[in-house]
Each structure stands twice: as C-alpha cells, then as structure tokens.
Amino acid sequence: MSKKIKVAVYARVSMKSERMYHSLEAQQEYYKQLIRERTDWELADIYVDYGTSGTDIQKRGDFRRMLSDCEAGKIDIIIVKSVSRFARNTLELLQTVRH
Questions:
Q1: For residues 27 and 11, what is the distance between their CA atoms, to the nearest angstrom?
Q2: How far is CA 28 from CA 20, 21, 24, 32, 94, in A?
Q3: Could you please report the per-residue DSSP string of 78-92?
Q4: Backbone angles phi, psi at 55, to 5 degrees
Q5: How open is the CA angle 23-27-31, to the nearest 5 degrees?
Q6: Residue 2 per-residue DSSP state
Q7: Are 75 and 44 contacting, i.e. CB atoms less than 8 angstroms apart?
Q8: Distance of alpha carbon 17 from alpha carbon 13, whole angstroms
Q9: What sign for the dihedral angle of Cα 95, 61, 65, 26?
C-alpha cells in the first residue's frame, strides 16, 4: 500500500456575517467529501480564518498554524477555493508559495 498524500484545506472569509459563515461551512464540507473520494488522499487538517483580511499573514492565526504544519511535514498539499482566499498581498503570496 502506498503512502497517502496529506491534504490540508484552507478557508477564509474577511467579513463576519451569517452568510459568510455558511460559505465557510459549505467549503469545508465540499473539500472533506473531495478528499474522502480520493483513496490516495487523507485529510491532514482544516484551517479556517474567519473575519480576517488576506492582506496580512500575521493576523491570520490558522494560516500561520498551517504553515508551521507544512514545515513539520504534516501537509503535502493545500487546497483552497481561490488564490485570493490564500493571500491578497501578491508579495506575501509569492514568498509563501516559494517557502
């Protein structure tokens, strides 16, 4: 049996509202199902920043926790709804992806 790929999910919304909260829940459920359908994937963790801007990594606690888990070898792949959910600051995005 081959080693499974450890997949993390990252979700973020910048505004705190009931509609956005439901969007986060829907994203998480979609990705959990996607990972369950892949026999070669396993869920590493789900990281969520609720009501925080994507322009400053320092203000996103779960994002920083996710990066630490990547450095610790707990994550092979990160899936996210769109690149704007991952980062809004182009320089931080490029630095993070390269890291």
A1: 7
A2: 12, 11, 6, 6, 25
A3: EEES-HHHH-SSHHH
A4: -90, -15
A5: 170
A6: P
A7: yes
A8: 9
A9: negative
Note the maximum CA span of the chain: 44
Residue 44 CB contacts under 8 Å (≥ 6 apart), including other chains: 6, 7, 8, 69, 74, 75, 76
pLDDT, tens only, 9-51: 998 877 665 566 577 888 899 999 999 999 999 999 999 988 7
Residue by residue, DSSP assigns 7-67 as EEEEEEESS--HHHHHHHHHHHHHHHHHHHH-TTEEEEEEEEEES--TT-GGG-HHHHHHH
C-alpha span between 5 and 38 (Å, rounded): 10
Token pair, residue 39, equals: 């026999």
In the prediction, which pLDDT does 5 show? 97
